[in-house]
Amino acid sequence: MAALVVVFSPLPRLRGLLQRCWGRLERGLLPGFSGGQRPAWGPALAVQAPVFLPEPVRDATESNEAPSLLDSILWMAAPKKRRTIEVNRCRRRNPNKLIKLKRNIDICPECGNLKQKHVLCGYCYAKVKAETRLIRMEIHKKEGGPFNAPTVETVILYDGEKPTEKDEGKRIVERARKRPSWFVQN
Predict the structure, then answer these.
(1) What is the DSSP letter of 71?
(2) What is the three-class DSSP state of 143?
(3) By CB neighbour count within 10 A (0-12 exposed, 13-18 middle, 19+ buried), where does 103 fall?
(4) Alpha-carbon 62 to chain mean position
(5) 3-state DSSP call for residue 95?
(6) How far apart are CA 171 and CA 148, in angstroms?
């Protein structure tokens, strides 16, 4: 006696059940989105969304099916695989992203500190800035403010220097110290 046993896979039945449930859910929710009447038994859904839902572009060749709820979702790109730590380290430690060695370093002839070539030394600039501030204070004491300044050229004289014939008619500011080596006389 021979018996024939037929076994059906439960997957097609389960797929059909899920499709029917999803279709009922869409038919119940979408009329409310499009402005139509919702059945009295339909579920209520609160969604925080923009005032309008984006409508997908429809071709004339498509059938007149009800739009799917998934059509209005903005899909974002996501990586398929996680980047490994080796790949991340190779990207971060790329030789192009590392700090470059400076080969244009020179010694300042005035103060002896390191500086970039063709760039004013920072230490010397600080000294020039301080001296300029002191000269401006002398001018301010002598004339009483910026609005009383004469419209003539200014000459700075240090200890042991005397005005020349070229300095006649110019404003002369005297400093009670030796002239710095970097402050050349005109």
Answers:
(1) G
(2) helix
(3) exposed
(4) 45
(5) coil
(6) 12
Beta strands at 114-116 and 105-107: parallel, antiparallel or unpaired: antiparallel
pLDDT at 39: 52
CA proximity to 31, closest of 22, 39, 19: 39
Q: What is the pLDDT of residues 79-106, one digit of tens each?
A: 899 999 999 999 999 988 888 888 999 9
Six-digit token pair at 79? 């990586």
Look at the block and give the residue holding tokens 């050349």. Answer: 184
CB 5 within 8 A of CB 11: no
| 135 backbone dihedrals φ, ψ, rounded to 5° | -65, -40
Q: Which residues of the chain have pLDDT under 70?
A: 1-10, 29-67, 69-70, 72, 186
- Indicate yes or no: pTM above 0.85: no
With beta carbons less than 8 A apart as the criterion, state whether 184 and 167 touch: no
